[in-house]
Specification:
heterodimer; A: alpha+beta; four-stranded antiparallel beta sheet; two-stranded antiparallel ribbon; 2 helices; globular; B: mainly beta; five-stranded mixed beta sheet; 0% helix
């Protein structure tokens, strides 16, 4: 049995910025032979800034897995959100960032399969694109 | 930490409470919800839980939940664990995260976006509507 201690943040903030007392320590217990459980009790901090860059770790295809996080730029235009993977010249769009990232992930999976199917007939540009994509995405069971 | 494989999120649920049985480690998720009906906003939820089942996790991770108000595309809250270790990537890992003092600044749709070591791995959606619930009016 392994144990680890989680330390909560030193303060938690309310929307009006008042400090609250520090909650007590929580302990994670991982038992071998069971589904390990990671438990944490964490205060919620208030933030208002939004990152324009996301590291994507989702591919939404059971046959594939992400080896390395894919750098994605998130842009908002009117009511749409664009998620752009510049390395692969692919983008996804949707009403929310989550929708746009899902759309992009599906596009990347399709691109992976298409390039894999045609791998013997690719020109040099597409071969290098496939090699680059293979640095980030792989078929399951290959590791 | 950066060498740890990127976990795959298999399920992510929001609920009032999670009970973990001491002997077997079985989890009971109490009060699953995907909408809330407070009478007014801003509204502070004292406690809620996020349950996530992950695979492909092995090594050290910091998990972070970002709560985003989708209508304004603003992060209203974030909660982060200390570094924790997942034992074996071929098995499953259950992440049970209790969020305290969760702020809901306006009515509308919210997303709970889960990140592992700074990498986005998935989300769960929550709608906050003016109460009471339509079926209870």
């Amino acid at each position: 049995m392994a144990t680890a201690t989680l330390l909560p943040e030193s303060v938690r903030l309310t929307p009006v910025g008042q400090n609250r007392p520090v909650p007590s320590k929580k302990v994670v217990v991982i038992r071998e032979g069971y589904v390990p459980t990671i438990s944490a009790s964490v205060p919620t901090k208030k933030l208002s800034t939004r990152s324009k860059r996301v590291r994507l770790g989702v591919i939404h295809t059971p046959e594939l897995r992400i080896k390395r996080a894919i750098p994605v730029e998130v842009r908002r235009k009117d009511d749409q959100v664009l998620a752009i993977a510049h390395d692969f010249q692919e983008f996804g769009c949707g009403e929310t960032m989550g929708d746009a990232l899902d759309d992009l992930a599906k596009g990347l999976a399709e691109l992976f399969f298409r390039l894999d199917e045609e791998k013997d007939r690719l020109g040099s540009d597409l071969r290098s694109l496939r090699a680059k994509l293979s640095d980030y995405v792989e078929r399951r069971g290959k590791e | 930490m950066s060498d740890a494989p990127i976990p795959t999120l298999l399920a992510m649920l929001l609920c009032d409470q999670i009970i973990i049985e001491a002997g077997s480690g079985k989890k009971t998720l109490v009060g699953l919800f995907d909408s809330m009906h407070p009478p007014e906003v801003p509204f502070m939820l004292p406690s809620m839980w996020v349950y996530a089942r992950l695979s492909d996790a092995e090594g050290s991770y910091v998990f972070k939940a970002e709560i985003v108000h989708l209508d304004e595309d603003k992060i209203v809250g974030t909660a982060q664990t200390a570094p924790i270790t997942a034992p074996h990537r071929l098995g499953f890992v259950d992440l049970t995260l209790q969020l305290q003092m969760v702020p809901f600044v306006k009515f509308g749709k919210y997303e709970f976006q889960l990140h592992a070591n700074g990498i986005y791995i998935g989300r769960s959606t929550l709608t906050v509507q003016k109460g009471p619930r339509p079926d209870l009016r």
